[in-house]
Design brief:
The complex is a heterodimer. Chain A is α+β, with helices and mostly antiparallel strands. Chain A is about 25% helix and about 35% strand. In chain B, helix 5 runs parallel beside helix 10. The chains are: A alpha+beta, B mainly alpha.
Chain lengths: ~375, ~575
């Protein structure tokens, strides 16, 4: 088993965290139904998925806050949970750290005491505590708040304190449970960048849970997309975004048009796969090494659909269609067009408004037409 | 690893141990109560020689008592709901001056106890000697203006007290209603009246109905007011009848037990109904989110409403206290005392009389004991029910909340019957009272502590764990400091409840283990009303001091919110 995992892992044979066939049931209700993945040293891995997909449960199982039903978890090669060997090391013995969704800032302590907690648990000396706490507070720009009580902090400030508290005692792994979800949109965008920078500076292995796609794309080295307690796809942000392997991922990771059709091997050629929709459109796409069934589904990102009023030069994947609706959304305009029996949605950079009902040309580069895995 | 396993199982064993103790405390007396109710054999012989349902038929030999109980309970419920609804509407929905102060003052009637109200209103409204009737005759009236020793007198006193409970429940419903629901109706063009009838009323009806059932159940089991006001005119309700049947010679234990079981069955059904309504019917309380209700500007009418608020608080709090003070300072309490009638003698007697001193000392001792042991026991139970993941926690909750549905008098009756045959002779000692208090106050203590415990976000403890803190360190540095204000509040509530307990104490105290509240009742019927007034005031003072500390503590809890 370990040998196969070593072969599967793209970055070498020594993962920092190994999650192996993890299952977790609440009573009889499955939350996680057999999940395996590795996290490599210094890597930031994100568990991404809608609420109820099991991502938080998986994170809490790694933390030791939930006891799984079956499977195995190893950290630094040490088995911290194994159903077969009946091992369950308690959370406080695992040497990890975590930032909670609610921040969990202790209201009866000052900022300094909150951050110092992990060091006090480890019986650090007073001088060491003062130095490390101030250094950590400096890193999150909260030094001047050291003597404040937690109840006097704003959400963003609590977030920073929670972060400082999590890394001050140099844990081997940092776990993040949707840490930004309680912040407003602007602050969230700023904190995203800050968190990423901090993570790079600390070089610490981290597992991050979120349901927010942009957050996952911006912050991760690798993303694990989960759904209904199972892994849907694992890959770099680029892979996940460009080459979704299922309708679920394509739709969840940004907006996509899904097109269903019948494979036309007779028209394949030049590395392109052809399919014919029920309306008779021939669409050329790419398989990226995936098997093509007789009735494949392809995904086209809304941003990859081009709209023009003049006929484009391309020979393939060009259609003349009527505009159904345009929605101005600031940075882009969303155009809905009628295309045979279905609608396609395109997101275009700000453009001249298009009258409803007027005909336009839509075109898609075949490399952006991605065949989904069966 | 091995240690982790064994720790979990040790936790489990301790948990089940505490749960078992609570179960025995609750179920052991209930078993004996049931046994007595089904005992149709020779009443002198225990254990019973024959079982049957004849005792329940026996209840119907007393149809007047059932009718009385129903009359008093219905009248009191209707009055309490009117008080509660009117006050809740005024204080949450209108701009009456000083509404925030009034909202806090509305808790005071509850802390004055029905006994105190009954004593005071008896002094005011007894047909012959009542102050109000004396004034009435002085003004030229004939006979008496009011008679407090009737069904409606009893109901009036109970309603004044229970009105604050109804207020709390109804105000909570009104506060949890999103004002946008009403605003939406207005935007659609509905008039104020139409909005009131079609939106506001339907939304609060389930909550008010729930309050009605809850209050009615409480009224069925209430004891003190009926005892003080009904006994002189031989007007009995079911609780006072049970007390009478147990106390008389020869006692009719079996019929009393059957009455107790029937009463408790009805109350249990009522509270079940209440829970169903609260859970299913109430649309507005689902989110549990408090909104700032829309406050209507009612112009000069607000001074009229202010008058109504003041009137209620005066009838429920001010007047009773003034009356007791007025009576306690006289040799013979009359409405128009002569100059020579004033005296401090009653207070001197109250604090020097041996019987009173020992009763007060016993009550304080029991209060400290109940509160201290109670906080530990109930804290553990609250943790077991709401924080541990023991599979049986739902069942434990039911058992622990069970005494809520049993009138304390009936429960004490079961306890008495149970412990009389217990090999360790604790009957007639303070120990039995301690056990009784710990049992009947289980719901109060567990609910109070659980309220604070549930406010503490679980991740606060988990975060300490993630920082590497062991269980002991976590409890010491995070859990306990966060819980302390709640535990102190629970301690004080248990202390207050113990010091003023009547229903259980009156049956269980022995000649050498007297406590204060039943002694006040004894003094009322046996000694003098002036001395009783002094005693009641002294007890109120003790409770008031505890109350002030309680308010100060809860303020502090509010000052640093634990979320």
């Amino acid at each position: 088993m370990e040998a196969t995992q070593a072969l599967l892992s793209p970055q070498g044979p020594t993962p920092h965290i190994e999650v192996d066939r993890l299952e977790l049931y609440y009573g009889g209700v499955p939350a996680v139904r057999g999940v395996s993945f590795n996290v490599f040293p210094g890597e930031q891995l994100t568990l991404l998925g809608p609420s109820g997909c099991g991502k938080t449960t998986t994170l809490r199982a790694i933390a030791g806050l939930e006891q799984p039903t079956a499977g195995e978890i190893r950290i630094d090669g040490v088995t911290v949970y194994s159903s077969e060997r009946r091992v369950h090391i308690r959370a406080e013995k695992r040497g990890l750290s975590m930032v909670f969704q609610s921040y969990a800032i202790w209201p009866h302590m000052t900022v300094f005491e909150n951050v110092a907690y992990g060091l006090r648990v480890r019986r650090a000396g007073a001088a060491e505590i003062a130095e490390k706490v101030h250094h950590a507070l400096d890193m999150v720009q909260m030094r001047s708040f050291a003597s404040r009580r937690a109840s006097q902090l704003s959400g963003g400030q609590q977030q920073r304190v929670a972060l400082a508290r999590a890394f001050v005692f140099s844990p081997s792994v940092l776990l993040f449970d949707e840490p930004l979800s309680n912040l407003d949109a602007k602050l969230r965008a700023d904190m995203r960048i800050e968190l990423r920078e901090l993570q790079h500076r600390l070089g610490i292995t981290s597992v991050y849970v979120t349901h927010d796609l942009e957050e996952a794309l911006a912050m991760s080295d690798r993303i694990v997309v989960m759904r209904d307690g199972l892994i849907e796809q694992t890959g770099t942000p680029d892979e996940i975004y460009r080459l979704p392997n299922s309708a679920f991922v394509a739709d969840f990771v940004g907006s996509a048009n899904l097109i269903r059709g019948r494979h036309r091997p007779d028209l394949d050629g030049g590395g392109l796969i052809a399919l014919e929709t029920s309306a008779g459109h021939i669409v050329y796409g790419m398989a990226y090494g995936r098997p093509v069934g007789t009735e494949p589904v392809v995904s086209v990102r809304t941003v990859h659909l081009r709209i023009s009023t003049e006929p484009p030069v391309a020979a393939q994947n060009v259609w003349r269609v009527p505009v159904e609706q345009t929605v101005f959304q600031g940075d882009f305009t969303q155009v809905h067009v009628s295309w045979g029996e279905q609608h396609l949605v395109a997101r275009c950079a700000a453009m001249e408004p298009l009258a409803v009902g007027r005909d336009v040309y839509i075109s898609i580069e075949p490399r952006h037409v991605v065949i989904l895995g069966a | 690893m091995q240690s982790a396993r064994s720790l979990i199982s040790a936790q489990k064993i301790a948990g089940y141990g505490v749960a078992a103790v609570a179960a025995v405390m609750v179920l052991y007396p209930v078993f004996f109560l049931l046994q007595a109710a089904l005992d149709v054999g020779d009443p002198q012989v225990r254990p019973p020689t024959a079982y049957g349902f004849d005792n329940f038929n026996g209840i119907f030999q007393y149809p007047q008592i059932l009718l009385n109980t129903l009359t008093v309970s219905v009248a009191a419920t209707v009055m309490a709901l009117v008080f509660g609804f009117v006050m809740a509407w005024i204080l949450t929905r209108t701009n009456v001056p000083g509404r925030h102060l009034f909202e806090q003052l509305m808790a005071v009637p509850y802390y004055l106890t029905p006994l105190l109200g009954a004593l005071a209103w008896s002094l005011l409204g007894a047909p012959e000697s009542g102050f109000i009737n004396q004034i009435w005759r002085a003004l030229g009236g004939n006979g008496h203006l009011i008679d407090i020793n009737t069904a409606y007198g009893i109901a009036w006193v109970m309603a004044l007290f229970e009105g604050s409970v109804a207020f709390v429940m109804i105000a909570a419903v009104m506060k949890s209603m999103d004002p946008a629901l009403e605003e939406a109706s207005q935007i659609m063009g509905a008039s104020r009246l139409r909005t009131m009838l079609r939106i506001t009323l339907p939304l609060v009806v389930p909550g008010v109905l729930g309050a009605a059932i809850f209050v009615f159940a409480e009224m069925l089991g209430s004891f003190a007011a009926a005892l003080v006001l009904g006994t002189p005119s031989r007007y009995y309700v079911i609780t006072t009848a049970i007390y009478q049947l147990v106390q008389q010679y020869p006692p009719k234990i079996q019929i009393a037990a059957a009455m107790g079981v029937s009463l408790f069955a009805v109350m249990f059904f009522m509270l079940f109904l209440y829970r169903r309504i609260v859970m299913a019917g109430s649309y507005v309380t689902i989110t549990g989110k408090a909104f700032r209700p829309r406050v209507a500007d009612i112009g000069p009418l607000r001074y009229v409403l202010l008058g109504i608020c003041l009137l209620y608080l005066f009838a429920a709090v001010g007047l009773p206290l003034i009356t007791l003070l007025y009576a306690s300072l006289q040799k013979i309490a009359v409405a128009f005392p002569a100059a020579g009638n004033w005296t401090l003698e009653n207070f001197r007697v109250a604090v020097t009389m041996n019987a009173v001193r020992s009763a007060l000392a016993n009550s304080l001792l029991l209060g400290f004991g109940t509160a201290t042991i109670g906080v530990v026991l109930m804290g553990l139970l609250a943790w077991l029910i709401y924080r541990s993941r023991l599979p049986a926690s739902g069942l434990i909750e039911y058992v622990v909340m069970f005494p809520q549905a049993v009138p304390r008098l009936v429960f004490a009756f079961g306890l008495m019957w149970a412990w009389v045959v217990f090999p360790i002779p604790i009957y007639g000692t303070l120990w039995l009272l301690l056990i009784a208090y710990l049992t009947v106050f289980l719901p109060l203590g567990v609910r109070t502590i659980a309220g604070v415990m549930l406010q503490i976000d679980k991740s606060l403890e988990e975060c300490a764990q993630m920082c590497g803190a062991s269980w002991g360190f976590r409890v010491r540095t995070v859990t306990i400091p966060l819980l302390v204000p709640g535990l102190v509040a629970a301690w004080l509530l248990l202390f207050i409840a113990s010091v003023r307990e009547l229903g259980a104490s009156i049956l269980l105290m022995g000649p050498h283990s007297k406590v204060i509240t039943p002694s006040i009742v004894e003094s009322w019927f046996g000694t003098s009303s002036e001395l009783t007034a002094a005693l009641a005031l002294i007890q109120t003072l003790v409770v008031a001091v505890a109350m002030i500390v309680l308010v100060a503590v809860t303020r502090r809890v509010g000052a640093h919110p634990a979320d």
